[in-house]
Structure formats: structure tokens, C-alpha cells
Specification:
By secondary structure, the protein is of the alpha/beta class. It has helices at 2-22, 72-83, 112-116, 162-191; strands at residues 42-44, 48-53, 84-86, 92-106, 121-137, 142-157, 196-197. The chain has 4 helices and 7 strands, in the order αββαββαββαβ. Helix 2 (72-83) packs across helix 4 (162-191).
Amino acid sequence: MAEGKARLILSVVLAIGLLAACQSAPSAPAPPPPSYGALAPIRLDIGRIEIVDVHASAQLPTNVEDRVREPPASAAERWARERLSAVGPSGMARFSILEAAIAAAPLATSGGLSGVFTVEQAIRYDGRLVVSLIVEDPARLRHGQVSASLTASRTVAENATEADRQAAWAALTNSLIDGMNRELERSIPERLGPLVKP
């Protein structure tokens, strides 16, 4: 009798623990995309600016950038429109998006009984963004080039919802664009000094 009661209590405890482990935490909202319109524009002594997206999506099941509400390529293009300004009489600056990808990689999770009662990080999303800015002004014999290459990663749990994944992808994209902004803020004046106006 006592043994049967103990087994019943143990079964109830295990069931409660399993239920708690399977429950998902409330999904965190996706962070808003960063805005750079309030920052001082990068004024280039050039006649016009062209923005081109030449990156090719890998079209693999592991690539998810096309599922992001604002893909890295679109965020990079928006950054260029918000931050780069042409204020010169001649020449052209070309901002090119060369790579803009987010790929999923599975992570090892625990098996057995411990895995049943633990919610683990199951997928890592790796982002990569590569851009370049080439300035050509033959009339004034001026030219220059800078580039930026960024990587970032985020993980999600094995019980992640679509909202959780969107939040992770948005945070990853924001990290890439923030990194690109810092890198180009530093390298454009450094490498293209004569072509930058105060």
C-alpha cells in the first residue's frame, strides 16, 4: 500500500516536471530596427550615390535571411540612404552589398532523462554582411574605396516559437548593421579623407 502510494506520488511529480519543462516562456518581442536618420550624414564630395545589391542568396534550406522581416541586405540599403549624402559637383560613389546571409546551424542537445527536463539552446543562427563603398571622380582625378565585413550569431531554444526566431533574427541583423555603422564611420574619414566634407 505504502509502496503503491509512493509510486503514485513519484508519477505525479514527474508529470508536473515534464509539463513545466515543455511549457514555453513568453516570446520576447522583436527589437525595432535601428534608425540612423538622427545621426549626422556622411557628406561625400561627390556628385551622386548609387546603391546596388549584388549579393546572391544561397537558396539553401539552412539560409533564413529571406524569412526575416527586414533582411540584412534591406537594412544595409536603408543605412546607406540614411547616412550617405552626395554634396559634390562630379563623380559617383557606389555602395555595394556583397554578402548578406543568415544561416542556421543545429546545436548538440542532451539526450536521455536529463534532456527531457531541460530546455536547451538548439539552433545557432550565423549572420554575415560584407559591403563596399567605391568612389570615382575622373574629372578631379580622385578615387578611393573602403569595405566592411561583419559577423554575428544568436541562438534559440529547442522550444522556440516563430516569434522567438523573428526576435533572434532581428537582433542579429541589428548587430550586423550597428557593427557596419561603427566600422564605416571610422574607415570612411580615415581612407577617404579628401572626399569627405565636414
